[in-house]
Amino acid sequence: MNAHTAIRTPDAAPVPGDKPDVHAMVQHETVLSPRFYTTDFAALDAIDVSSVREEWDAMIAEMVSDPNKLHFKRDVRFDGIIEQLEPALKAEFIDFLVSSLTSEFSGCILYAEMARRTKNPDMKQLFKLLARDESRHAGFINEALKDAGIGIDLGFLTKAKKYHYFKPKFIFYSVYLSEKIGYARYIAIYRQLAAHPELRFHPIFQWFESWCNDEFRHGEAFALLLRADPKLLTGFNKLWVRFFLLAVYATMYVRDHARPVFHAALGLNPTDYDYRVFSICSQISRQVFPVELDTDDPRFRRSMDRLLAASRRIDAGKQRGGLGGALLRASGLVGAGLSFARMYLLRPRRNELPAKIRLQPAW
């Protein structure tokens, strides 16, 4: 459940008590919605990982061994569990599952296409392995949805979604962060439910620990790709690093605050949870990024809350409609832009890149 695709905005959330139209949900297009990507496949042929070859080969060997090959086998039935949830929790949990499935499946489609079209043997092998894992994740989530009678036709999803072009370096930045923040999100939820098993309202959470280790391992691959090409982490590209860090954090903050019932059921406060995840992600990303955002800065946190308030004004404007709604939306858009700019212009922390790149999922 990663974020090479981002999440859906609150205005598209399902209505509590309704049986959601999941195909409409996954087709919904906004700035924050799940997206499918395409890229410059020829550029993959020029990638050279020789400068990180030792760590690269060790990582590939680990992925080939497929540590989670037998993990995604259900030993409990999911039938009827989603239907028994109270309506608001059911709606937000389904939204969580659908956006997660779309994210995983979009990664599968992109990686499979990369593997098919590149002539670079290192890239071909890597992206085949990544596509294998993402397909497995998407299928597992879809089985949980099917048990509730709302599974998604993944073939339909492939044809229905629009595709957006991204340069390879932008895919590397965003997917690295998506995989690592996906790990941080999963492990934080897993640790919470390990301490409070009475809050585990669906069996799928039992799979989160090993699942998030897949996310971590995928992030390691993109860390090595970024470190293999030093220019991606120097000069003007540092500004892109800051942009993607902030975009991923801001997207997560808006999304999680749109699911208050879901987080309350897990015993989590969305604000505290998000800043815990940001902290873990910042610690991890020191392996590859020369800068990190100071998410503890009170100015950062005030601006993030202003961004959330602006997002809610945009949503309220859409709901209201008419001239009043248009003005409210415009106010929200301006507020969101200003809040994002304030956070972006805060001085980041500097980071000395370590000689050894790879990490272990020890959080």
UniProtKB/TrEMBL annotation:
Q: Does the keyword Lipid biosynthesis apply?
A: no
Superkingdom field? Bacteria
The EC number on file is: 1.14.13.81
| Cofactor(s) needed by this chain | Fe cation
Q: Which UniProt keywords apply?
A: Bacteriochlorophyll biosynthesis, Chlorophyll biosynthesis, Iron, Metal-binding, NADP, Oxidoreductase, Photosynthesis
Pathway(s) served: Porphyrin-containing compound metabolism; chlorophyll biosynthesis; Porphyrin-containing compound metabolism; bacteriochlorophyll biosynthesis (light-independent)
Q: Which reaction does it catalyse?
A: Mg-protoporphyrin IX 13-monomethyl ester + 3 NADPH + 3 O2 + 2 H(+) = 3,8-divinyl protochlorophyllide a + 3 NADP(+) + 5 H2O
GO molecular-function terms, A-Z:
iron ion binding; magnesium-protoporphyrin IX monomethyl ester (oxidative) cyclase activity
- Top-level enzyme category: oxidoreductase
| BP-aspect Gene Ontology terms | light-independent bacteriochlorophyll biosynthetic process; photosynthesis
Q: Name one Pfam family in it.
A: Rubrerythrin
Q: Tell me which residues make up the Rubrerythrin diiron-binding domain.
A: 95-225
User: NCBIfam families attached here?
Assistant: AcsF, PRK13654.1
Q: What does this protein do?
A: Catalyzes the formation of the isocyclic ring in chlorophyll biosynthesis. Mediates the cyclase reaction, which results in the formation of divinylprotochlorophyllide (Pchlide) characteristic of all chlorophylls from magnesium-protoporphyrin IX 13-monomethyl ester (MgPMME).
Q: Which family does it belong to?
A: Belongs to the AcsF family.
**PANTHER family reported for this sequence:** MAGNESIUM-PROTOPORPHYRIN IX MONOMETHYL ESTER [OXIDATIVE] CYCLASE, CHLOROPLASTIC
The protein, known as: Aerobic magnesium-protoporphyrin IX monomethyl ester [oxidative] cyclase
Q: In the UniProt record, what gene is named as encoding this protein?
A: acsF
